[in-house]
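Agenda item 2: nickel (II) ion complex prediction
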Amino acid sequence: MALLPILRFPDPRLKKIASPVEKIDDGIRRLARDMAETMYEAPGIGLAATQVDVHRQVIVIDISEARDSLLVLVNPAIAARDGVQVCEEGCLSVPGIYDKVERAEHVTVRYLDLEGEMRTIDADGLLAVCLQHEMDHLQGKVFVDHLSQLKQTRIKAKLAKQARITA
Ligand code: NI
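Presented output:
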């Protein structure tokens, strides 16, 4: 297992579009394990492969208090969505920034598990937000892309300042 470095917004590699996984092999299983370890260590409730500069459709999520309910989704796709919810989001690639984003309230997502079995998950609330947030990453989108231009400019300035302080 290994901790993977997480790309920071506005790194242009966060804009890359992830390609589908054609075969679930040991490489993909190792990637998923390393992503889970990286997410738990951060700590965060979700991580997309894009954030660790691997441009394949893999995400890991654990929204449980006990941190014992890992979900690994390969090639996730939204099959249905309805309703609207607004939730304050953050992102391991955008440290220290939180803002409200509008998402679907319910989503049905189809994906492959690490055995290559097709699965379906019906989610609402935080899990639905998390799924949409992580699937956005696979499309090269970060949650701040949902915010106004003015807010995005402010966030970039704030992160650049943080980077100078910690460099
Ligand atoms: Ni994120």
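Discussion summary: The longest strand covers residues 71-82.
Owner for follow-up: CH.
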